[in-house]
UniProtKB/TrEMBL annotation:
It comes from Trichocladium antarcticum. Transmembrane segments: none annotated. PANTHER family: NUCLEOLAR PROTEIN 12. Residues 1-22, 90-122 are annotated as: Disordered. Pfam families: Nop25. This is Uncharacterized protein. Keywords: Coiled coil, Nucleus.
Amino acid sequence: MFAQPRIRKVAAPPPKKRKATHAVEEITFDKDARAEYLTGFRKRKQARIKHAKEIAEEKAREERIVMRKQIREERKQAVEEHVETINKILRQAESAGTEEQNQDGSGDEWQGLADADVQEAPPIDMEEEYIDEDKYTTVTVEAVNVDRDGLHKPEPHHSSDNE
């Protein structure tokens, strides 16, 4: 009915309750290390302060970077909103312009001013002299034509009577 117990194997003897202590060979007193420890309080304190300042500067730098990024994002968003409003206004103006064209009944685009509508001003050529104590100044005013190539003197118009 009961199982037979296992046979116990003999192992190494049980460990001792106390371990053998190793004797320290010699303790030396280092006067230089003691002096460094006692006089190094100020150095260590200054090192801690310096380390704390470096950490604070790094945090401030990171904060400035984050703030610049946030400002950049806000400006970008403001520009996008501005562009959207301008586009909306342009679309409204365009739709209003097409409605006006439909009411007029003319679908033609504006071709600019006709040559007959443009009146040419008579050429201005004058010369004035100013005298002020030691200075003598001459002012010459001439008419010019402006085009893509630059400024040009107008060609004199000859009347058909002279030709």
